[in-house]
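Pilot study result, target chain (268 residues):
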Amino acid sequence: VLFSLSGVLTKAIDAGSWTILTWRGLVGGIGIGVYVWLRNRHRPVRDVFRLGRNGWLVATVGAVGSVTFIVSFKNTFVANVSVIYAAIPFVAAMLERVILGAPVQRRTLFAAGASLVGVTVIVAGSLGSPNLAGDVVALAMVGLNALYMVLIRAFPDTDSVLAGAAGGPMLFVAGWAFTDPLDVTADDAVLLLVFGLVFAAASVLWIEGTRLIPAAESGLLGSAETPVAIALAWIILSEAPPVPSIVGALIVLATVLNHARSDFVAAR
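Predicted structure:
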């Protein structure tokens, strides 16, 4: 829900993408960093914030993923980004097979193919419109965030929450190089502050929550993000998705829910 709200806030803010990235890096980085310190305040500060080479790799991938998150929401319908992102479990499964050698079940391959059909419907509906660029960036976002998830599993000794905090300074420096983050209206400043805090909270809850529940339940809960994002976009932005986006959303959501149901039954 918080990630969906972050996407809607991205579109509601009049400031450009680089300005949003700068505030996301500053506020989000500080917010996650404070959480990391509170969680480990019994340990020496030097040990708490020691990330290591693998951690910096995870942080870099996460930071670039944040760039695509903001740019995609800025340049296409919220529904398009949310539905395309719903296909991430299958992309992560493919990457996990390539990088970690993990087996991929046959039903996952079929689900990935069905999701690809839904995503193709959405992207095809944006051909010839400015939304096409946002859809393409959303596809890149899926690949980067899937890689982020796989790297977290590949480096179990890395503090993935701390890596999320380390991505903040990267975004802050990159954004500052392209824009003046203080050149915003008072209303946008408030929205940017709220956006940074919401994104930080969403990142922490997402990373910590996946450690506490089975993967099947995590996938089932994650699929709920799409209708929530579409509903928030309609309520806050009065943004109604076009017909191709609705058709693609139905295909992808049906695929994700059916696959999650199968995983849940198998886990039971």
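One observation from the pilot: The mean pLDDT is 85. A full batch analysis is planned for the follow-on phase.
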